[in-house]
Amino acid sequence: MTITTPRDDTASIATPASLGKGWAIAGTTAGLASIVSIVGSAMSGAAYDKSVAGDAVGITEKLSEQTASILLMHTGAMFSAVLLLVFAPGLRRYLQARVPVSSLLPDVAAGGLLLVVVAQLMGTALTTEFAFGLADTDQVVPETAVFFGHWIGTVPWLWVGAGVAALALGIAGRRHGAVPGWLVWTSLVLGGLTTLFGVSPLQYMAGMTGPIWLTAAALGLLKRA
C-alpha cells in the first residue's frame, strides 16, 4: 500500500518563469489608450453643458459637433479593451509564479481587469450608430441622443475592477515580494482610491485613477519582465 503525503499548497510557490515582455507592453499600451479614451469622453460632454441643460435639441446639436471626440473615446477604449485581454492573463501568470499556489490574488487581479474590459466594451456599444447618425441631426430623436451623451459620459468610467486588481497586486507585493516597494504602495494607494470611488456614488471618479494605475503598473512590470 502506498501512502502519499498531502501537498501543502499554502507554502508552495512556483519557480518564476519568463513570460517575455509582450504582455507587459500590451498593458502599457492599454493604459495609454485608456487615458486617451477618458480624455475623449470628457471632451464629449454635451449632455453636461449647462448652456443647453434640459434642451434635448440643443444637446443633440452640440453632440453633432463632438463626433471627433466621441470617435477618439471609442477607439481608445476598444484598443485598451483588446490589449487588456492580453495583459490580464499575463498578470495572472506573473503573480502565480510569485505567490503561494493556493492564493486567490492572481485570479482576483485578472478578474478585476476583465471587468474593465466589459465596461469599455459596453461603453462603446452605441458610438458607431450615434457618431455617424449625428451627421444628420434631423434623423436623430433628440432624447435618444441625450441618453447616448450620458452613456458615453458614464459607462467608460466604470473602472472599479482596476481598483480591485491594483489591491491584489499591492497585497501580492506586500506579502510575497511579487513587485518592488514603489509599485506596492502605488497599487495600494491608487487601488484603494479607485475601489472606494467605484463602490461609492462617486463611482465615475474611478475612471480618473484606474487608467493611471494601469499605466504605472504595466510600466513597472515591463521593467521586470
From TrEMBL:
Q: Does the keyword Transmembrane helix apply?
A: yes
The superkingdom listed in its UniProt entry is Bacteria
Q: Which UniProt keywords apply?
A: Membrane, Transmembrane, Transmembrane helix
Membrane spanning stretches: 23-48, 68-87, 108-128, 148-172, 179-198, 204-222
Q: What is this protein called?
A: DUF4386 domain-containing protein
Q: Which organism is it from?
A: Nocardioides marmoriginsengisoli
